[in-house]
Amino acid sequence: MAGSRLLAGVPGDGAPGVGVLVMAPIVPCREGPSGRASTGRTAGRGRTLADMSTHAKRERLLFADLLEAAGPDAPTLCEGWRTRDLAAHAVVRERRPDAAGGVVLGALRNRLERVQAEFAAKPYEELVQLIRTGPPRLSPFALKQVDEAANTVEFYVHAEDVRRAQPDWSPRELDAVFADALWSRLERTARLVGRRSPVGLVLRRPDGRTVVARKGSPVVTVTGEPGELLMFLFGRQDVAKAGLEGDQDAVARLRLSRLEM
């Protein structure tokens, strides 16, 4: 896992001190199975995704289901990481704050890699179950507001990291309420993440609503559904179903850039 890179510290929905931690891919993203993901699978203890009351919980359980179905050695969109490594990352993020700080603090980077390697060596089924059951009771992530703010995008992106690394995938059909929730989070994080764009960057929904991720000239406008715009903004340009408009050279530079913090 030492060869993988983390994108860290993207604010959530205003919950103090909460960040959304997502993976930034290094290698070109690959197309991939799944198609539309089921939302009726059993999610442990008799729960189903349909029973979950928040977007974050539903995405968490979908992520766990996809990890379970893929097995421990399936590819992901994160260079150097198989599904086992991605699962270990998600568990450490919620359960080992002493190590998770290595995402942003270079002094803790070796500790983070060591702890993630230790978790990756655990039985894969155990890792998936830890994701599925959620954080410890005393964790800030156990609070509904914090979980929703910090984990909605986190688990949406990671679920897609598993799905889109497989052959013959197709975009999920997101309901309007969830799409709006993703757009709301995109509005809050666009300028922070988009500051690494080499050109001016505007994100636009098909209905015409826009958010400026980076001011500047020339400008490239990226159009797509909120989930696809998130994938693009968080470094998954090659697998995001989005259209780009602007100067040809600027578009090429944006496609090749690493949109990360």
From TrEMBL:
Biased composition range(s): Low complexity: 34-47
Source organism superkingdom: Bacteria
Region annotated Disordered, chain positions: 31-51
Name of the molecule in the record: TIGR03085 family protein
